[in-house]
Amino acid sequence: MAFTVSLFFTPLAAKFFRRLKAGQPIRTDGPQTHLGKKGTPTMGGVVFIGATVLAYLSGHAVLAALPEGYNRPQGFTATGIVLLGLFVCMGLVGFVDDFLKVRRKNSGGLNKRGKLVGQIIVAGVFGWVALYYTGSIKLTVASDRLSFVRDIDWLQLSRIGAVVMFIFVVIATSNGVNLTDGLDGLATGASIMALSAYVVIAFWQYRHWCYGEHPANYCYMVRDPLEVALVAGAAAGACFGFLWWNTSPAQIFMGDTGALGLGGLIGGLALATKTIMLLPILGALFVIVTFSVIIQITSFKLTRRRVFRMAPLQHHFELAGWSEVNIVVRFWIIAGIGVAIGLGLFYADFLKVVG
Questions:
Q1: Secondary structure element (H or E) that encloses residue 194, with its range
Q2: How far is residue 229 from each of residues 86, 120, 141, 195, 234, measured CA to CA in Å?
Q3: What is the pLDDT of residues 320-333, one digit of tens each?
Q4: Cβ distance 145 to 155 under 8 Å?
Q5: Three-state SS for 26?
Q6: Residue 171 contacts residue 159 (beta carbons within 8 Å)
Q7: Can you tell me whether residue 141 is helix, strand or coil?
Q8: Quick one: pLDDT at residue 355?
Q9: Would the pLDDT of 122 be above 70?
Q10: How is the chain split into domains, by residue range?
């Protein structure tokens, strides 16, 4: 459902935004090859966010028709609300940024403080829900402990500290995806890999779920794992449909609408599956790109010298003469390696205990 809606509605959205003259402003101090992208419509994230929500509703209709005995979500769950809330509301912060860029005809958009405040408010609201609401099963969406492939008992935080951690993870991931965006299809493809990894993780947790009359010998104490898999699968499918039109040469960009939304969702998935410290491995490309910006800024402030020709890292390779397609494919390979290692570590932990 998500793939189909995104595949067929993305070109319609591109035409609509082009008529509104909602083209992505291009930085004049960046790679000169980007000047040819001037006028390409932005805010395409609206399409795959909407497709994900629609697919989520359709998925619940299917789950409601399953026979009795399945550990299916009973109606809409707190987990689904938190994950989709992060996706939609982080996307809304990005939409405001995109709208201001288009209106002002420059790449400024929201100032850094305004964007950060918006992200903190969104992450804080859903972090409070994730850590304070328990529902009928007496289990919160997120945990007050740090986690790798499951909660680490001796790394417990206060409830307020856990909310702060929730905010930090969501903001860090949303900004990581946003920094990775900038080449046709790069952030979309990398996000698909991360989302697909969380489909696998969440469904595996569902098949070995502690909640129920007959829990497995080795189980995962998480809330609504099938719901997590449903949301992650819908978002991955929606991004696949969007990638058809976003790959080089892109007919539409996701904009901050899509990048901040995807980052917020991926961060939320890590918190809901209790794989916080596994996230930097699954999202290795986002981490590498983010650190390239941190290194560049730190080096320039301390020594007045730049380590890279331009940050984020993908633009360094553009200025070094690499073609855009080569950069995207090679960065996708890095993202895929991170996902493979992350899933391997997750499964190895299971085998260690079961074996």
A1: helix 186-207
A2: 16, 26, 14, 9, 8
A3: 999 999 999 999 99
A4: yes
A5: coil
A6: no
A7: coil
A8: 63
A9: yes
A10: 2-283
For residues 59 and 185, the model is more confident at 185
**pLDDT higher than 60, residue 343:** yes
Cβ(256)–Cβ(94) below 8 Å: yes
Structural tokens at position 189: 């493809």
Mean pLDDT of the chain: 91
Do residues 28 and 239 touch, judged by C-beta distance below 8 A?
no
What residues contact residue 7 under an 8 Å CB cut-off, 6+ apart?
240, 241, 242, 244
* Tokens 């320039």 belong to residue: 300
Calpha distance 153→233 (Å, rounded): 30
Residue 257 CA to residue 95 CA, distance in Å, equals 5
State the amino acid at position 9 in one-letter form.
Answer: F
Residue 243 near residue 112 (C-beta atoms within 8 A): no
Bond prior to 215 in cis (omega within 30° of 0): no
**pLDDT attached to residue 62:** 83
Q: What are the E-state strand segments in the chain?
A: 145-147, 151-156
Q: How far apart are CA 26 and CA 33, in angstroms?
A: 10
Res. 166: pLDDT tops 80: yes
State the pLDDT at residue 28: 61
What are the phi and psi torsion angles at 41 (to 5°)?
-65, 150
- The per-residue pLDDT for 37 is 77
Length of the chain: 355
pTM as predicted: 0.94
Do the Cβ atoms of 267 and 202 come closer than 8 Å? no
In contact, 208 and 146? CB cutoff 8 Å:
no
Structure tokens, 154: 């001796």
